[in-house]
UniProtKB/TrEMBL annotation, chain A:
Pfam families: ABC_tran. One of its GO terms (molecular function) is ATP binding. Belongs to the ABC transporter superfamily. SUPFAM superfamilies: P-loop containing nucleoside triphosphate hydrolases. GO terms for biological process: L-amino acid transport. Transmembrane segments: none annotated. InterPro entries: AAA+_ATPase, ABC_transporter-like_ATP-bd, BCAA_Transport_ATP-bd_LivF, P-loop_NTPase. This is ABC transporter ATP-binding protein. It comes from the Bacteria. Residues 5-238 form the ABC transporter domain. Keywords: Amino-acid transport, ATP-binding, Nucleotide-binding, Transport. It comes from Roseibium aggregatum.
TrEMBL record, chain B:
It is a multi-pass membrane protein. Pfam families: BPD_transp_2 (PF02653). This is Branched-chain amino acid ABC transporter permease. InterPro entries: ABC_transp_permease (IPR001851), BCAA_transport_permease (IPR052157). It is found in: Cell membrane. The keyword Transmembrane applies. It comes from Roseibium aggregatum. The lineage of its organism: Bacteria, Pseudomonadati, Pseudomonadota, Alphaproteobacteria, Hyphomicrobiales. GO terms for biological process: amino acid transport. GO terms for cellular component: plasma membrane.
Length: 242, 292
C-alpha cells in the first residue's frame, strides 16, 4: 500500500537548541489510527510539530503523498491537508463555539460553503449546536476537545494530528474521544496521535510507534507493539529513559 | 439633580476620549504583547497633525482626523520594522518593549518639541468654545463631539473585530497565537496591521484631544499613568474592559473633581487601580493569570 506520510531519519529541535529528534522515522497509512508512544522527553510532540511546520526540519525528510514538506510554514502544510491540534489549548477561549468552528475554515480560499459545512458538523456533534453561542473557554474539558477535533473536519483534511487529546480527561470521556477518532478514521481520515498513556493509546489504535530519545525504536500493528517485551523494558525500567 | 446630570455628562464625554486613547493601547498589547509607553506621545503626534492642518490651512480637526490616522498608522509600520521586529523573538519581549517604548516616547517628545516648540497649543474651531443648553444642563460642544466621535470609532472597531475576516484573525491571534497560526493565520501580518490600527487610533484620539485640551510635547507623561491604569483595570488586552473602565472612572473622577477639587480627580484612577488589583488582579475582563 502506498504510504500517505513518510518520515525518514528526521532531526529537529527548538531554536538553536539541541536536537530533540534525531533519526525518527514513521510511515502512515490512509484511514488508520496511528499512536506514537514513548517516555517523557522522547520527542513525541516535537515530531508532530516538525511535521506540521512549526519546527524546522534540520535533517531527513517528511513526505506527504510523495511530496516533501520540508521548509513549509504551518499554513502551507495545513492547506495540503494535514491538520494539527496542539496539546490542551487548541481553542480560542473567548470566541464562541460557532466562531471557533469558523476559524477552522480560515485557510479556505472559497468561503461559500463554510456556513453549510459548519451546520453539518453541528449536526454530527449536537453538543456543539447546543453550545454554539457560548464561549469555548467555558465548556468542560471533554467538550473543548470535541470542539477541537470537530473543527479539523471543516477543511476535510487527509491527516489529523492530535497531541495528547486525552490529557486531563476522565476515562469515560477519553473513551468518547477515541470513539470520535474511530468515526473520523472510518471516513478515511488518517489519525496520528501522541499518547502519554501507552496502554490506552495502543488499545485504541491500529498502528503503534515507539519513540525514545528522539529516535524510533520500532513500529508495528498496535496489538503487537502492546505485547512486545521491549515495551515492558521501556516503561518498567531496565533501560534508562530520558 | 441638574448638577448630577451635568457631572455625568461631562464625565462621559471625557471618558469617551479616554476610551479611544486606551483602546489603541489595549489592542497593541493584546495582539503584540507590546506595552506601549509611547502611545500617549503618539497621541500628541496626532494632536500636532490636527494643529498643523488647522493653523496653516484652517482645516477643521475633525476633518484632519483621517489624515492623522493615516500618518500615524504609516509611522507605526516604520517604527515596527525599525524598532520592534528585531526583538520579536526575544523571550522577554514584553519587558523589552517597556524600555524600548519609554525611549521612543522621549524621542517622539523631542521631535515634536523641535518641530513645534514647547509652547502650549490648542486648535480652536468654533464648536470648541460653544455649548448646548438643555434647561440648566450645559453641554460643551467640543467635548460632546470628541466623546461621540470616539465612541463611534470604537464601535466601528468592535464591528470590524467581530465580523470581518481580519477581525477574526486579530481576535484569534490575541487569544491563542499558536492555534491561530496552525489554522492558517499569518500572525506576523496580523501583528503588524494591529499595531498600525492601534497607533492609527492614537492619531484619531490626538486630533480630538487637540480641541479639548491645550497640549505641548511633554504632556503625554500626564496621560500614560491614567491610560495604563485604564487598560489594567479593563483587563490587559480587553478593549471592552478598557472602554467600560474609561467611562465609569471618568464619571467618578468628574464627581471627585466637583466635590473635592480638581486636584483630587486624577487620584480616582489610581485608587481604583489599587482596589481592583487587590480584589481582581486580572482586571474587569482579563483572563485569570495561569498558575504555572
Amino acid at each position: 500500500m502506498e504510504k500517505l506520510l513518510e518520515v525518514s531519519s528526521l532531526t529537529a529541535g527548538y531554536g538553536d537548541g539541541p536536537a530533540i529528534l534525531d533519526g525518527a522515522h514513521l510511515s502512515v497509512e490512509p484511514g488508520k489510527i496511528h499512536c506514537i508512544i514513548g517516555p517523557n522527553g522522547a520527542g513525541k510532540s516535537t515530531l508532530l510539530k516538525a511535521i506540521c511546520g512549526m519546527l524546522k526540519i534540520r535533517k531527513g525528510d517528511v513526505k506527504f503523498k510523495g511530496q516533501s514538506l520540508k521548509g513549509l510554514r504551518p499554513d502551507q502544510v495545513l492547506r495540503k491537508g494535514i491538520c494539527f491540534v496542539p496539546q490542551e489549548r487548541a481553542l480560542f477561549p473567548k470566541m464562541t463555539v460557532r466562531e471557533n468552528l469558523r476559524m477552522g475554515g480560515f485557510s479556505l480560499a472559497d468561503k461559500s460553503g463554510l456556513e453549510k459545512r459548519i451546520d453539518e458538523i453541528e449536526e454530527r456533534f449536537p453538543i456543539l449546536r447546543e453550545r454554539r453561542d457560548q464561549h469555548a473557554g467555558t465548556m468542560s474539558g471533554g467538550q473543548q476537545q470535541t470542539l477541537a477535533m470537530a473543527r479539523t473536519l471543516i477543511i476535510k483534511p487527509d491527516i489529523v494530528m492530535l497531541d495528547e487529546p486525552s490529557l486531563g480527561l476522565a476515562p469515560k470521556i477519553v473513551a468518547e474521544m477515541f470513539d470520535i477518532m474511530r468515526l473520523m478514521a472510518g471516513e478515511g481520515i488518517t489519525i496520528l496521535l501522541v499518547e502519554q498513556n501507552a496502554l490506552t493509546g495502543l488499545k485504541n489504535a491500529d498502528w503503534g510507534v515507539v519513540l525514545d530519545l528522539g529516535r524510533t525504536l520500532f513500529e508495528g500493528p498496535a496489538d503487537e507493539v502492546l505485547s512486545d517485551p521491549r515495551i515492558q523494558e521501556l516503561y518498567l525500567g531496565g533501560k534508562k529513559a530520558a | 439633580m441638574g448638577e448630577i446630570i451635568q457631572i455625568v455628562i461631562l464625565g462621559l464625554a471625557l471618558g469617551g476620549v479616554y476610551a479611544l486613547m486606551g483602546s489603541g493601547l489595549s489592542l497593541v498589547f493584546g495582539v503584540m504583547r507590546i506595552v506601549n509607553l509611547a502611545h500617549p506621545s503618539l497621541i500628541m503626534g496626532g494632536a500636532y497633525v490636527a494643529y498643523w492642518g488647522f493653523k496653516l490651512y484652517g482645516v477643521d480637526p475633525l476633518i484632519m482626523l483621517p489624515v492623522a490616522v493615516v500618518i500615524l498608522a504609516a509611522t507605526a509600520v516604520i517604527l515596527y520594522k525599525l524598532v520592534f521586529e528585531r526583538e520579536a523573538r526575544s523571550a522577554k519581549y514584553s519587558e523589552m518593549t517597556v524600555l524600548l517604548t519609554f525611549a521612543l516616547a522621549m524621542v517622539v517628545e523631542g521631535a515634536l518639541g523641535t518641530a513645534f516648540t514647547n509652547t502650549q497649543r490648542v486648535t480652536s474651531p468654533d464648536y470648541a468654545t460653544d455649548a448646548f443648553f438643555i434647561g440648566d444642563v450645559f453641554i460643551p460642544k467640543g467635548q460632546l463631539y470628541a466623546g461621540m466621535v470616539s465612541l463611534a470609532i470604537i464601535g466601528a472597531l468592535a464591528l470590524f473585530l467581530k465580523y470581518s475576516r481580519f477581525g477574526y484573525a486579530i481576535r484569534a491571534t490575541t487569544q491563542n497565537r499558536e492555534a491561530a497560526e496552525l489554522l492558517g493565520v499569518n500572525v506576523n501580518l496580523v501583528g503588524l496591521v494591529s499595531f498600525a490600527i492601534g497607533i492609527g487610533l492614537a492619531g484619531a484620539a490626538g486630533s480630538l484631544v487637540s480641541f479639548v485640551f491645550s497640549f505641548y510635547p511633554s504632556k503625554h507623561w500626564e496621560w500614560i499613568a491614567i491610560l495604563m491604569s485604564l487598560v489594567v483595570l479593563g483587563g490587559m488586552g480587553s478593549i471592552l474592559g478598557t472602554v467600560l473602565a474609561s467611562l465609569i472612572l471618568s464619571v467618578i473622577a468628574a464627581f471627585v473633581g466637583t466635590y473635592f477639587g480638581a486636584t483630587w480627580s486624577t487620584l480616582t484612577f489610581f485608587v481604583a487601580l489599587f482596589v481592583v488589583l487587590m480584589v481582581r488582579p486580572q482586571g474587569l475582563f482579563g483572563e485569570k493569570p495561569e498558575l504555572a
